Design the sequence.
């Protein structure tokens, strides 16, 4: 419910922003967000991924003192690294705006909005800590709170007719700060009664840095499209592409919801060496995600242009071909399931890192080549192919290294329907 609400609020925010700013300004805003996302991955140093694993293990063993030490060390790491990245962006904002993206407007946006990076890092780390603790309610509703506050502020700007990218960034910063404050307060209540066990930041970084490279490579696949479009075309094309890309990404939110739940479970079962349960868990999760996602994908394949016209306006319907390419990529992503999580949470993050680097480089080369010939449609095709390659390779290696096949299963579909029928019967009997 939390993930679904967050997706709905996220789509609503995109609709308001796309209509509020128009394709050109919306494109500049999305370029800024992508820069923040890349900066966020670099400054997180992989700690957001490793904290789910470590929190899941410590919670499973009841060692909350060590958990508190892990949290303290991790937050110290991202405070220092975020400060360094913010300084680098601040001093190079002119180059990024004028030389790379050829957008003088972006310069002011970078100077004003750079504060978003440490706030985003703090909120992500807090949310991932709750995921590791299996407090999925809090982990789900912190992003919902942030999106809700942002939507309220966006509607205020919309009806008061004071829309500008600067005001949007101010509203974004307020929404992230409020959600972060709530999350830190809740986390402090859980850990305050335990004595802190010292955990070396070096020991965390030894495991997190390979995950950073993996996350960074994945981000190249998901962000290079916007960067390449911004460099080779213009902000209007970026705005149109960003709308169709965001809409395509919402189609697999059921799988995304499940992937919020199972990483800590995978880590816990792997430590216990309960591989039969682990194997069934992964395929069950992939199948459940596919059952909910595939109908959305089919619906958008047939009625995608109508959705773009009704939700965002006629100026965005020219992105329908790019949208269809992205839908195909998400379909494969949906079928292959939680292959990345299996590799990360079973100690095979180095394997995933190598796959991600290869696919990231493939994505970069293909994007640069195709954008010069086909514009946003070429970028969409390159992104879809890279996503397919990433998931297929990760699925093959997960099966080869662990014996776990992550693909959605027709046989497990029957199990899901049987369990759903029993659950409904139980509810009705009560």
Sequence:
């Amino acid at each position: 419910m939390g993930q679904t609400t967050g997706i709905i609020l996220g789509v609503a925010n995109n609709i308001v922003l796309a209509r509020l700013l128009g394709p050109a300004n919306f494109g500049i805003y999305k370029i800024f967000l992508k820069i923040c996302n890349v900066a966020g991955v670099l400054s997180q140093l992989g700690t957001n991924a490793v904290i789910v694993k470590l929190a899941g293990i410590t919670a499973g063993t009841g060692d909350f003192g060590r958990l508190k030490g892990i949290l303290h060390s991790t937050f110290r790491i991202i405070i220092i690294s975020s400060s360094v990245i913010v300084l680098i962006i601040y001093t190079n904002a002119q180059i990024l705006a004028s030389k790379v993206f050829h957008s003088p407007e972006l310069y002011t946006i970078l100077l004003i909005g750079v504060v978003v990076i440490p706030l985003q890092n703090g909120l992500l780390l807090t949310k991932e800590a709750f995921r590791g603790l299996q407090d999925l309610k809090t982990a789900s509703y912190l992003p919902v709170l942030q999106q809700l506050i942002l939507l309220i502020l966006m509607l205020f700007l919309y009806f008061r007719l004071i829309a500008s990218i600067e005001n949007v960034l101010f509203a974004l910063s307020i929404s992230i700060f409020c959600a972060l404050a709530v999350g830190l307060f809740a986390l402090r209540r859980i850990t305050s009664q335990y004595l802190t066990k010292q955990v070396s930041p070096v020991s965390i970084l030894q495991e997190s840095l390979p995950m950073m490279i993996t996350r960074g490579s994945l981000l190249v696949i998901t962000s290079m499209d916007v960067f390449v479009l911004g460099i080779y075309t213009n902000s209007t094309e970026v705005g149109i592409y960003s709308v169709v890309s965001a809409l395509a990404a919402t189609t697999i939110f059921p799988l995304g919801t499940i992937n919020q739940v199972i990483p800590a479970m995978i880590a816990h079962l792997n430590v216990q060496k309960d591989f039969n349960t682990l194997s069934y868990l992964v395929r069950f999760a992939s199948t459940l995600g596919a059952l909910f996602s595939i109908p959305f994908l089919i619906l958008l394949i047939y009625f995608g242009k109508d959705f773009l016209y009704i939700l965002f306006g006629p100026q965005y319907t020219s992105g329908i071909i790019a949208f269809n390419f992205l839908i195909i990529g998400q379909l494969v992503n949906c079928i292959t399931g939680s292959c990345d999580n299996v590799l990360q949470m079973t100690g095979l993050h180095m394997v995933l890192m190598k796959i991600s680097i290869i696919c990231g480089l493939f994505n970069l080369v293909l994007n640069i080549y195709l954008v010069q010939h086909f514009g946003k449609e070429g970028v969409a095709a390159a992104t879809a192919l890279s996503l397919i390659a990433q998931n297929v390779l990760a699925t093959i290696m997960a099966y080869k290294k662990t014996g776990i096949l992550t693909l959605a299963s027709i046989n497990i579909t029957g199990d899901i329907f049987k369990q759903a029928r029993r659950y409904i019967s139980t509810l009705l009997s009560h």
